[in-house]
Write a structure and sequence with these properties.
The protein is mainly α. The chain contains 4 helices and no strands. Helix 2 packs antiparallel against helix 3, helix 2 packs parallel to helix 4 and helix 3 packs antiparallel against helix 4. The protein is flat. The relative contact order is 0.11.
Length: 147
């Protein structure tokens, strides 16, 4: 080995102290469960899509209700709403609502039958969406009359 190669390898050692992590689905950090280890299979795209729907619906409706009084034009309302919903989904909805709610469905324990976790996850998703649908119906049609 040449002296130049030894020197370059020695210099490269300072870069060896890092952790590499593969993002295993299109929603990246929204579904990071490190306690299962790096060899744990990622949730399917169907599961992650449903989980995003469970979080996105209440987030978007709540933000729409908050932005409603500002009477912005549609294009501006959507621009601002999308910005806020992206942050809300990343920092609030997914880590504190959806992931705890659907954790055992998205990354089921190895010792539980898949059919059991799938039915349970679908049931929880349907119940959560039904709950928010009723809440938002009551808020927008009964208590606060919006179109």
């Amino acid at each position: 080995m040449s002296d130049e190669r030894r020197q370059l390898l020695a210099e490269g050692e300072k870069f060896a102290d890092f952790k590499s992590r593969t993002i295993d689905n299109s929603f990246g950090s929204w579904f990071a469960f490190d306690e299962h280890g790096p060899d744990s299979p990622p949730p399917s795209e169907v599961k992650t899509s449903i989980a995003v729907w469970v979080g996105l619906y209440p987030t978007v409706v709540l933000l729409s209700l908050l932005l409603w009084p500002l009477k912005m034009p549609l294009w501006l309302n959507l621009l601002v709403g999308n910005l806020f919903s992206s942050f809300a989904m990343t920092f609030v909805t997914m880590p504190y609502y959806v992931n705890p709610l659907l954790k055992h469905w998205l990354r089921p324990p190895a010792n539980v039958p898949k059919s059991r976790t799938n039915w349970r996850g679908i049931g929880i998703s349907v119940a959560a969406l039904a709950f928010w649908t009723v809440v938002f119906y009551l808020v927008t049609k009964v208590f606060w009359h919006l179109p």
